[in-house]
């Protein structure tokens, strides 16, 4: 398997501003509303991300908690995080969102799951099962929410 097979991506244009869309992504309490993997249960309010190095927590549908370290951040344009078990080093899989305004209150949004550096063998089956369709489902739900708010 090549490293390119370890990167899954999907994109779409959303009829909403990059700022509106980014608020739904950068606020972990909003993420379960648009999660196309149906993997996220809840996150405490007040964790809105604003810089690299910040960490937010998320409870998964199975009840376990993840710490998510922000490793890329540009307000309104890009955010990426590495999840891990609480107090542990991230095992190496990354979730990234990139937003590019395309005019007229529309935004091209790209969602990427990159497990090139994943070292935890227990997570490999789940990583392989994350498809572009899963990412597209998140984009579709995100679009619905962002477009409703407009």
From TrEMBL:
Highest taxon in the source lineage: Bacteria
A Pfam family reported for this protein in Swiss-Prot or TrEMBL: Polyketide_cyc2
CDD domains according to UniProt: SRPBCC_7 (cd07825)
Stored SUPFAM superfamilies: Bet v1-like (SSF55961)
Stored InterPro entries: Polyketide_cyclase/dehydratase, START-like_dom_sf
Record protein name field: SRPBCC family protein
Species whose genome carries this gene: Saccharopolyspora mangrovi
């Amino acid at each position: 398997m090549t490293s390119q097979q370890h990167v899954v991506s999907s994109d779409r244009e959303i009829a909403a501003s990059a700022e509106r869309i980014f608020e739904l992504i950068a606020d972990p309490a909003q993420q379960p509303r648009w999660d196309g993997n149906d993997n996220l249960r809840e996150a405490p309010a007040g964790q809105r991300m604003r810089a690299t190095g910040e960490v937010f927590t998320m409870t998964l549908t199975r009840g376990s908690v993840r710490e998510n370290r922000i490793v890329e951040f540009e307000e309104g344009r890009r955010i990426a995080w590495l999840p891990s078990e609480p107090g542990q080093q991230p095992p190496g899989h990354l979730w990234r969102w990139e937003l590019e305004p395309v005019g007229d209150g529309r935004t091209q949004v790209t969602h990427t799951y990159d497990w090139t550096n994943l070292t935890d063998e227990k997570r490999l089956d789940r990583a392989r099962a994350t498809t572009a369709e899963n990412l597209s489902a998140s984009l579709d739900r995100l679009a619905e929410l962002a477009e409703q708010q407009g």
